[in-house]
Write a structure and sequence with these properties.
39% of the residues lie in helices and 20% in strands. The strands form 6 sheets. An 8-stranded parallel beta barrel has the order 4-5-6-7-8-9-10-11, surrounded by 8 helices. A 3-stranded antiparallel sheet has the order 15-16-17. Strands 18-19-20 form a 3-stranded antiparallel sheet. The chain is elongated and about 85 Å long. The protein is built from 17 helices and 20 strands. By secondary structure, it is of the alpha/beta class. The N and C termini lie far apart (60 Å). Helix 8 crosses helix 9. The site of zinc ion (ZN) has 6 residues, from loops.
Length: 548
């Protein structure tokens, strides 16, 4: 079966596994025994391609879905809910292609408890090495009365028949599984919910998902619901309990964490917390909560490759056209940005004074120190050092005065502003290499070729190279001359003046021996500006390596 492997012990009954939890005592002290002999796996079921794709305006095309699915596999999610195959021929084809091409995770197709839906779901996923049919029906009174217009008995029968039909289709496949969801479980009468869960497990569902479809319950209530299901459904140990929480009250992650503590071992979630209305449980938050708070959640782990979190978050945001809010936990632009002087000073002295996660663990390059009027001398000195400038205390005092003048006028002081200050205040870095001239041959039907001539103490050297665009070609030509190939980690271009003949300023970041070096270049020709930025970074490295 898809979910369990021989190396992963089935520990669903392992509450007594050394976890001593004094929860919510009078003084609200929470203590857990820190050493856990075993840690149970929490399966990560990603529904970015199904629930998040239902976000208004977020529809993805075929290729985009496939690309995201491949990245979800790199992230190492356990299950990808690839779509709702009956909903459109396009969705069917996308799910089928994902099932055929994406290796690693189980591939799941959603279906209502309707024969044609289940047939379509199976048709789309059957070629996956680990296929899963996920069938659902609303079980709350309001869903029964207003949506399916069925009695409790009829709803129960539809659910059971659907699971039996899904099982019958998938029976020939050794690793196929059926998941059932009583939609709006949070508002379903308890005794009826137990009955539905028991009957669908008896019919063959090996995963029962408890959807908090409208984000109604609060953590203690939702956790209690999971405990109640464990205590009152006689065959519950034949299935894995999953949870699927929506964020209408901002509680989706909290509800999911509470559910894990009460016995859930699968969490349905999405990248960036996208999804219907206020969204779903955010994958990055649930995974990092479990990992970061090992002291508290040490009895559980996920298999997520956390370094892939930021890259896939950006991809999802870009392809769905939904920007990530800057203060979003883990993946927001400000998640590791420090603005107040006290925080900046602390982080420079020791990162974990104000950071509970190492940004590189989730795929960020570094913490960000945002220079503003609130920044102190230490933050300024640190940034200048990163830019390749070393300053004496006297110089720093003078530079800090000028910095404050600029900072008072702007919200944030950028590297280019600092460079401008530094050009005036301190002797600039010696230019071991200077661009002599550049020639570009580019067009729609030819490979871009850039020829660069660079002046050094030994004379002028010229090289030509093709590349993925004229900038790449220019960098390759420079690499041939300088023989110090660099890892480019960031490239940005902005116009510093207005109009068609605007000056373009290029800022690049390169890595050298674990140190980030920033290079700048400005010109009305963006290829020239790009080459100047690269040479600027090289000159800084030469200075730091040999004279710094
Ligand atoms: O929110 C929900 O209830 C769902 C189901 C289809 C699981 O998305
Ligand atoms: Zn949902």
């Amino acid at each position: 079966m898809g979910l369990k492997t021989s190396e992963e012990p089935d520990l669903r009954n392992a509450e007594d596994n050394l976890i001593s939890l004094e929860h919510r005592t009078e003084h609200r002290t929470i203590t857990k025994q820190e050493s856990h002999t075993v840690s149970e796996k929490v399966y990560i079921f990603d529904t970015t391609l199904r629930d998040a794709e239902q976000t208004p305006g977020a529809a993805l095309n075929f290729e985009e879905k496939l690309e995201i699915a491949k990245h979800l596999a790199k992230l190492n999610v356990d299950i990808i809910e690839a779509g709702f195959p009956v909903s459109s021929p396009g969705d069917f084809d996308a799910v089928k292609r994902i099932a055929n091409e994406v290796e690693g995770p189980e591939i799941c197709g959603l279906s209502r408890v309707i024969e044609k839906d289940i047939t379509a779901a199976w048709g789309a996923i059957k070629d996956a090495s680990k296929p899963r049919i996920h069938t659902f029906v609303g079980t709350s009174p309001i869903h029964r009365e207003r949506i399916t217009r069925t009695s409790p008995e009829e709803t129960l029968k539809m659910a059971v028949d659907a699971v039996i039909y899904a099982k019958s289709l998938s029976d020939g496949h050794a690793d196929a599984v059926v998941e059932f969801s009583p939609m709006d479980a949070g508002r379903t009468e308890l005794s009826y919910l137990y009955e539905v869960v028991e009957a669908t497990i008896a019919a063959g569902a090996t995963i029962v998902n408890i959807p908090e479809t409208v984000g109604w319950t609060v953590p203690a209530e939702f956790g209690q619901l999971i405990s109640n299901i464990k205590a009152n459904v006689p065959n519950i140990d034949e299935a894995i309990i999953s949870v699927h929480c929506h964020n209408d009250l901002g509680l989706a992650v909290a509800n999911s964490l509470e559910a894990i503590e009460r016995g859930a071992r699968q969490v349905e979630c999405t990248m960036n917390g996208l999804g219907e209305r206020a969204g779903n449980t955010s994958l990055e938050e649930i995974v990092m909560a479990i990992r970061t708070r090992r002291d508290y959640f040490g009895a559980y782990h996920t298999n997520i490759n956390t370094k892939e979190i930021v890259p896939i978050s950006r991809r999802v945001s870009r392809t769905m056209g939904i920007p990530v809010q800057p203060n979003k936990a883990i993946v927001g632009a400000n998640a590791f940005a420090h603005s107040s002087g006290i925080h900046q000073d602390g982080v420079i002295k020791q990162r974990d004074t104000f950071e509970i996660i190492d940004p590189s663990d989730v795929g960020w390059q570094e913490s960000q120190i945002i220079l503003s009027p609130r920044s102190g001398r230490n933050a300024l000195r640190h940034r200048l050092h990163e830019l390749g400038y070393e300053t004496t205390p006297d110089q720093l005092d003078k530079i800090y005065e000028r910095f404050l003048v600029v900072a008072d006028k702007k919200k944030a002081v950028h590297d280019a502003d600092l460079e401008a200050i530094m050009r005036d205040e301190v002797r600039s870095i010696p230019e071991a290499y200077q661009i002599e001239h550049i020639q570009i041959v580019s067009g729609t039907k030819i490979s871009p070729t850039t020829t660069v001539a660079v002046r050094t103490e030994e004379g002028v050297f010229e090289e030509a190279s093709t590349g993925n665009g004229p900038v790449d070609a220019a960098y390759k030509a420079i690499d041939r001359i300088v023989k110090m190939p660099l890892t480019l980690t960031d490239y940005r271009i902005r116009s510093v003046t207005e109009g068609k003949d605007a000056i373009g300023e290029v800022t690049i970041k390169v890595q050298d021996n674990g140190r980030m070096i920033v290079g700048h270049g400005a010109s009305i020709d963006i290829i020239v500006a790009s080459a100047k930025a690269y040479i600027d970074a090289i000159n800084k490295i030469v200075h730091l390596r040999y004279e710094g």
